[in-house]
Design a protein that fits this description.
Immunoglobulin-like; 39% strand; 982 residues; elongated; 7 helices
């Protein structure tokens, strides 16, 4: 550039206005070459299928789809998955990409369109008379219609094949608006819109039939329709194509091959000569290789759901731009070494950079220019501007220097090994490898009472006190008395840097993060990795004008905000534009405009607080794999189906011994994948979730049961969302632990128990019956013997008495009527006693226990009682009743006596001429009924005598019920109900 300026100076008389304009443009471009921007490159080395990228799209999982000359690449922010001809694509070169509402990916290549369902590709040729059908674009409308442009023709997929839409002809450009309607540019008629049923003309080219539209897109910020036409970039305004006003300010002319209006309103243009131009905040920026981008041809732009801008290049892979939050200076910007150890600024606004091996730099017009210094003084550790605007330079092995803007001067020719310079009340404190020093009136003096051999940093904590950082901790130094407080403020940790605000002192350590010391209370709080700090190795601390504390660590840059007792930490890393994440000691600075500068091992980075960072959103969480004993789950062995776009079985049911599971998951986050953290929980095993930055978890020896594995992911700011993915599965229990086995076993045990109880009771019952039979047999023997004895002894005697009485009656016939009457009475009573004794003797016999014998006996007794009377006796028995039933031992006697008493009462009182005795069965009971046709009696007025009372008492003895029903002049009915015994 210096040579060009000299040549132009020599030939200034011959320079025309055009050359002056060219020079101005070159100088303007040179200015932008100083700082570099945050373009992150991904190429074959990172896993991209091929370095010639053509087109982008984004699927439902937020994964980036990239078409290349080597196939399809799917990117999740950290890794690529590639598909080519070996995996089912008909051709490797891809020209168009899209995806439908069923999550199918549509891929366009030279002669066909392929549909990818996550497992395999299916190819559909275009039905056209032309054999060459390079796919120019694929779009999917709100009705899920898939449209394709090829060879200036429009095709629509009918579910089986692509059919040419001949309604409109000669179509090169199509696009989708925010409502999902398809727009198509027809030559030469204009632009048509498909509303889901038919086409209608939206823009008529009647005023310019020569206008041809090659590409179309809607702006994400304004919603305007842009077109790359045969007459350049145009925008639709009031139904007409016009050239946008801002295009006239572009300091470059050429053919635009691609354009994009992003969601922030920035305009991106790609020309055939490489690089891109961006129109933002009313100014143009040219991004090329010199400021961090590439000079390759740009095939297409794309803005993803997170606001990142992606560039498909023709040879350098793809680039991602997240904004100008961080810009930087490195070797390509003019630094001979990228490691910057210190930054400062003069009152004039000049920025100086101190390098650890190439000396001092001054930023001139945004370009680092080296300040002339001796070679041996090139290892700079710290720089400082004093109140006189003089730059102080501390080196690691060449003492202390100053720079007044024109030349450098060696102030002290001694190797003290400067680590850090700090200014306070016209005193410059030097933290050095050999101790603590101060400079007053350009005189260097060592603080002899500071015994630590190496001081890393210092900061004032009052009018007469200094806090110094050493390898053993932080100590308070009384500068007025020049004494060191023996007890450390913070012990047993290397202290590297300090920061402060009106309330706290912030202490940076090499293993404990940031210790915050409250100056009023003397209490400490810790901020470390547990609070969200990138790592616990802290190199620099800086308080900005908004009160935020910026922490330069070995793993990135963090911003700490204290809201009361709440600690908020925001981390910045490679995805935010930091090429290197390791900061240098005390290498942070805030300039007059509020920009923050950070020296790192990979260059100096400038943070722009006035640029809005990308809006964080919930990462899409995907379950990548479920392994059983470190092997993939068979897709159909344990389940009937698989989850769409995965090989995972849906709700698998695993055998008992298949219980060692490994889950692998990922959060798709294209901006900051390295900052994602996860929470996972196995519902059914874990009581709560576990937070981690790992994406694999192992569950060995799971017990049988139903489980639900859930995993969440946070964004880059550590915010959590309801974005969990869930995976249910079941591990079957052993048959001997299942509920039905246990139920069956329980029922079996209960059955065995009941069976044993039943068997025991049956045995007891059989024994009881045996004992009863034995008892009955003994009773029967006794009864039989008693009956025989009774008959032989009492019956014979009574018979003989009756006979003798009869003989006596005959011989005493003439003795007198009184004696005869007495003998008759004796005879009658003896006869009656004999008849009664017969019933007693009968009841003692074993056969008298059967109901049929009892009924026969009742019938016999009744007939004997009515034998010498005019009363007729009738007996009836229902033919279906079974009377051969054995009754208890005392039943026969009571039944006979009940009906004997009843018949006697009828004969004595009823004045009946007919008696009917019947036996039937009713509802499980045997019913005995005795009916007469006598005069009856009044049930309410008749007092129960011995007859009725005896009948009722005897009935109660045999658990029977007796009913009396009598109607005056109509007779009486006696019913005895006896429970049937079998």
């Amino acid at each position: 550039m210096t040579i060009r300026v000299a040549q132009i100076t020599l030939l200034k008389k011959e320079i025309n206005i055009g050359c002056i304009m060219l020079l101005a443009m070159l100088l303007s471009t040179a200015y932008t070459f100083g700082q570099k921007y945050n373009f992150i490159n991904f190429n074959v080395e990172n896993g991209l299928a091929q370095s010639q990228a053509t087109v982008f799209s984004q699927n439902q999982n937020n994964e980036l789809l990239i078409g290349t000359f080597g196939g399809l690449s799917i990117f999740d922010g950290s890794a690529f998955v590639n598909y080519n001809k070996s995996k089912g694509l008909p051709q490797n070169v891809i020209y168009a990409l899209s995806f439908d509402k069923r999550h199918n990916i549509w891929v366009g290549n030279a002669n066909s369109v392929s549909r990818f369902d996550g497992k395999k590709f299916k190819t559909f040729p275009l039905h056209s008379a032309t054999s060459i059908n390079q796919i120019d674009d694929i779009e999917v409308d709100f009705q899920n219609n898939v449209w394709v442009v090829a060879n200036f023709k429009l095709f629509r997929f009918d579910g089986k094949q692509f059919i040419e839409d001949k309604t409109i002809d000669t179509v090169k450009a199509i696009t989708i608006d925010k409502s999902g309607k398809l727009w198509a540019a027809n030559y030469p008629e204009g632009i048509f819109v498909y509303d889901g049923k038919k086409w209608h003309k939206e823009i008529d080219n009647k005023n310019d039939r020569s206008l041809f539209v090659g590409k179309m897109s809607f702006g994400k910020y304004t919603g305007s329709l842009y077109g790359l036409t045969s007459k350049g970039l145009m925008v639709i305004d009031k139904g007409k194509f016009i050239s946008p006003e801002w295009l006239a300010t572009l300091p470059f002319s050429g053919a635009i091959n691609s354009m994009l209006e992003d969601s922030k309103g920035n305009i991106w243009l790609a020309f055939n000569d490489g690089g891109v131009w961006c129109y933002s905040l009313n100014k143009w920026t040219h991004y090329t290789y010199q400021n961090g981008f590439t000079d390759d041809y740009i095939n297409s732009f794309f803005e993803d759901a997170e606001g990142n801008i992606w560039f498909a290049t023709n040879g350098s892979g793809i680039f991602r731009f997240t904004g100008s939050l961080f810009t930087y200076y490195d070797r390509g910007s003019g630094l001979q070494t990228p490691s910057i150890m210190s930054i400062t600024q003069t009152k004039k606004g000049e920025i100086y950079l101190g390098s650890n091996s190439s000396g001092l730099y001054k930023l001139m017009n945004g370009i680092p220019k080296k300040v002339t210094m001796p070679l041996h003084a090139s290892k700079i550790n710290s720089i400082l501007v004093d109140s006189l605007d003089k730059v102080w330079i501390g080196t690691s092995d060449a003492g202390l220097w100053t720079y007044d803007g024109k030349k450098t001067k060696e102030l002290i020719n001694t190797n003290i090994g400067v680590n850090h310079l700090y200014s306070d009340n016209n005193t410059i404190w030097i933290s050095a490898q050999t101790g603590l020093y101060r400079i007053q009136n350009d005189t260097l003096r060592r603080e002899k009472n500071v015994t630590s051999p190496s001081i890393f940093a210092s900061i004032s904590i009052g009018v007469d006190s200094l806090l110094i950082g050493t390898i053993n901790g932080a100590y308070i130094y009384k500068s007025d008395t020049r004494t060191l407080v023996s007890k450390p403020l913070l012990a047993n940790t290397t202290t590297l840097c300090f920061g402060e605000d009106h309330k706290n002192i912030y202490i940076g350590t090499d293993d404990r993060g940031v210790e915050v010391w409250n100056k009023a209370t003397g209490k400490f709080i810790s901020i470390n990795q547990k609070n969200g700090l990138s790592c616990n190795y802290v190199y620099s601390l800086l308080r900005d004008r908004n009160g935020n504390i910026w922490v330069g660590t070995g793993c990135g840059i963090d911003c700490i905000t204290l809201n009361g007792n709440k600690i908020e930490v925001k981390s910045f890393g490679k995805s935010d534009g930091l090429l290197g994440v390791e900061s240098n000691a005390n290498a942070s600075f805030e300039d007059r405009e509020g920009f923050l500068w950070f020296g790192t091992t990979r260059g100096v980075f400038r943070y722009n607080p006035y640029v809005t960072s990308a809006l964080q959103q919930a990462p899409k969480v995907l379950l990548q794999s479920v392994k059983l004993y470190s092997k993939d789950l068979p897709d159909k062995k344990y389940a009937d189906s698989t989850i769409a776009f995965t090989d995972l079985p849906f709700m698998p049911v695993l055998p008992t011994n298949q219980n060692h599971l490994t889950f692998t998951f990922k959060g798709v986050y294209l901006s900051n994948p390295e900052k994602i953290r996860y929470r996972y929980q196995l519902v059914g095993a874990d009581k709560s979730f576990t937070e981690t930055d790992q994406n694999t978890v192992v569950y060995p020896n799971l017990p049988p049961g139903e489980y639900l594995f859930k995993v969440w992911a946070s964004d880059a700011d550590g915010k959590w969302y309801q974005n969990a993915v869930s995976y249910p599965f079941t591990i079957n229990a052993p048959y001997y632990t299942t509920w039905y086995f246990r139920l069956g076993l329980g029922l079996l045990l209960v059955g065995i128990f009941l069976g044993s109880v039943y068997y025991r009771n049956r045995q007891k019952e059989q024994r009881r019956r045996w004992e009863e039979r034995l008892k009955e047999e003994q009773q029967a023997i006794v009864r039989q013997k008693t009956a025989e004895d009774f008959h032989d002894e009492i019956g014979n005697k009574l018979t003989r008495i009756n006979l003798l009485a009869t003989i006596a009656e005959g011989k005493l016939a003439q003795s007198g009527a009184d004696v005869k009457n007495i003998l008759q009475q004796i005879q009658v009573n003896v006869a009656s006693l004999y008849n009664g004794s017969k019933d007693i003797i009968w009841s003692l016999q074993p056969e008298s226990d059967y109901l049929d014998e009892i009924v026969f006996r009742i019938q016999q007794n009744s007939m004997e009682l009515v034998q010498d009377t005019d009363v007729a006796f009738v007996f009836e028995q229902h033919p279906d009743i079974n009377t051969h039933i054995k009754l208890p031992i005392d039943y026969s006697r009571n039944l006979i006596m009940i009906f004997k008493e009843a018949v006697n009462n009828i004969l004595k009182h009823a004045k009946a001429n007919a008696i009917k005795f019947s036996i039937t069965e009713d509802k499980g009971q045997i019913v005995f009924e005795l009916r007469d046709n006598g005069i009856g009696f009044d049930m309410d007025k008749t007092v129960k005598g011995n007859g009725i009372g005896n009948i009722s008492n005897r009935a109660a003895r045999i658990n029977a019920t007796v009913e009396f029903d009598s109607v005056m002049s109509k007779g009486t009915i006696i019913k005895l109900r006896l429970k049937a015994l079998k």
